[in-house]
Amino acid sequence: MKPFFESTMASITDFLTTVRPVRTVRNIQIVLVSLTLLFVTYNLAVPFFGQKKINTSAEGQFSEGKIAPETVQSAKEFYYEDEEKTQQERIKARASVPYSFDKDYTVLSAGIDVNLSEDIELLRTLNLDGQKPSPQQVKERIPRWRNRTNEELQAILDYPKKEKLKSFIQQYTNLIFSRYCIVKEELSFQKELEKSGAKVRNIGTQDGSYLIDATLILPRSQIYKEGPILSALQKLAEDKLPNVSPILLKSVSRIGLYYIFSYPACTFNAEETDFARKKAEASVTVQRSRIQANEIIVRAGEVITPAVKLKIDMMNRYATRANVASIVSIFISQCVLVAIIGFYLIRYRPNRLNDLSSNLIIFITLWIVIFSVYIVSKTYYANDIEWAGKYYFALFVPVGMICLLLGFVYDEQLSIAIGFFLSFAVFFASRYNATSFMLAFTVAVVSAVYGRSLKKRIDFLKAGILLSFVQILISTAGYLFDGRDFWTSSPELSFFSNLSNSNIFHLVILCFINGFASATAVQFLLPIYEYVFNIPTRFKLIELADTGHPLLQQLLTKAPSTYTHTFMVAAMSERAAQNLNLNWLLVRVGVYFHDIGKIPNAGFFIENQHLIPKPEHIDKNNPSLAAKTVIDHVLDGIEMAKKARLPREIINFIPEHHGTSTMAFFYHKALQDLPASARKNIKKSDFQYPGPIPQSKETAIVMLADSLEAASRSLDDVSSESLDELIRKIVNSKLAENQLDESGLTFGDLEVIKASFKEVLISSLHQRPKYPKPEDTKALEAAAKSKQKR
């Protein structure tokens, strides 16, 4: 059973980690991205699916006047045409239009002034006979003044300047005429007039229309009645005719009011008023009202009022339209985000997702988080406790988990890109809550950066603390911005009871739960991912670096000199990788397994022949067979590594540390053993390793170190100069064979590598002084004692 399981897992790992053509990988990515788009859009749009119709008919449970059997809440924000509100606005617009009046100025010149001139002229005729006329004679001669009192008329008679008198009366009538709008009839709309005012159109003058207050529109019946209107008119006379005696002023005002009364110049223009009001009504646009996302229309147990029924009806009417719009909006937004992230990854991390396993790791993890968003959404908004008023949506979503995981497994750039995408998913799912977006994005960035620096198990605990602290800060900022209450105390409870019931306490607890849950989930998922997808994480590499690994134990027992050679190459390669700031742990583990293919034929290889002496170890008379045996150790090593489920990144060291270099010894021997005419039958490719040449700096370093370590054992004299010469020779030979062309190493890197190799070799190959023999030491001690006795 165990062999079958291990064989199956090895096949799965090989299938997942096989290097495929770029086109194939891109096609797989397109399928995964399309599935993700559909999956994300579906999960984010689910809350908008099927906002169920609510029965508000007379027989329905939500008919007007009934008690709501359950709470009704809007799933999203939408606007609707509010007919009632529109009608109210039209009524308001109509009522705001002033009443229209026409004022005919010809009345002043053709009526009032003519009559006044006639009456003043009649008054003059009374004084022509030389007798002083009485008020009664005035009444008889001037019928329009017959209702004036004798006292008023006597004041008129006593005033000697009749032309001046005419001027006083005329000035007063002009003042009233121009300032007021005197109408003949009583106004039935006096109260409405006081609200809207009036618009007066002048006729018979060049002045246009003007607006006046309702207090200046006077029915003529009001100007003689004792009260505020008459007082205002008299006050006008006193202000404008200051040099007239009070008794004469009273007569002038009374006579003047008579003419105003007799010739009311203003008329209400009903047609013009109606036209203006219809125009104002027509200018009112259709009013729209808004129902906010998560707005509770009615709670269970509350009465269905007309306003509530209207909102429910609008929800029923606009529900389907709102759903379609929301789904399309989410899909378009997701497409744009995916395009941005895709451009970013292609631009800055083109080789990161070039295998099936990496893509599956990322997309499966992404789907897990999106599914959690869906679950949280269903619970968060269906909760009658109103979590939205206390907690932010993002605090329930494990964004930190995926970013911490990807940051640790890959790098912070990829992790931040995925976190950016998830942050917007949280933003949509939280119904566009800005604080939730800030929480998700900040946690994503912090997790991505910190995830890359995870080195020990204790670092996961530190990550939990860091994420909790960051979330507490952002949540606090959100509370301050939203004006939410941190603390609501009850005098009946103790401080600790109030603390345990406070929002800030619950918020901090949730931040810690989210932070530590994310870090713990990574610890749980990491071994699973490492095993299924065979990821060479730091922890996985540390496990593989254990010399107790079965393959390394076989190497120690069956090929001990190869084992020794391996650790020497590891020391040289690791030192060079450290100086180039490369993944030195990956280099160390890669070297440990780079020669495991020698285990089946350990005695064949030169370093082990002194330990396993057999005549068939090396057949110098058959170089072609020897070359094939050497090449086979590469192929055998790859098969053994696959069966042991070593990560692809480790297996790469096995073929790439030889590249396609030529086995010069056997090739030379093959040529040497044949006559010149037969040498053309020798294929050089039969004496070359299968490759590929190193595809990374790490495997290129191991190629150089492997060749150098073997060559250094043939040095007769170990000195700085001889090592420099040897290292230069090895590097130049690899350059000459173009073995480093695809490694990414620069000439500057090669200088660092040379110095690193020399540093390790000098330390390893140094010579120590010979220690003296014990008997020689004793002889010296004996000679010293003999001399003392003398």
Automatic annotation (TrEMBL):
InterPro entries: HD/PDEase_dom, HD_domain, HDIG_dom, Metal-dep_PHydrolase_7TM_extra, Metal-dep_PHydrolase_7TM_intra, PgpH_phosphodiesterase. It holds the Pfam family HD. CDD domains: HDc (cd00077). The keyword DNA damage does not apply. The chain crosses the membrane at residues 28-49, 324-346, 358-377, 389-410, 416-449, 461-481, 504-529. Gene3D superfamilies: Hypothetical protein af1432 (1.10.3210.10). Keywords: Hydrolase, Membrane, Transmembrane, Transmembrane helix. GO terms for molecular function: hydrolase activity. It comes from the Bacteria. Residues 562-711 form the HD domain. The keyword Cell wall biogenesis/degradation does not apply. Residues 768-790 are annotated as: Disordered. This is Membrane-associated HD superfamily hydrolase. It comes from Leptospira ryugenii.
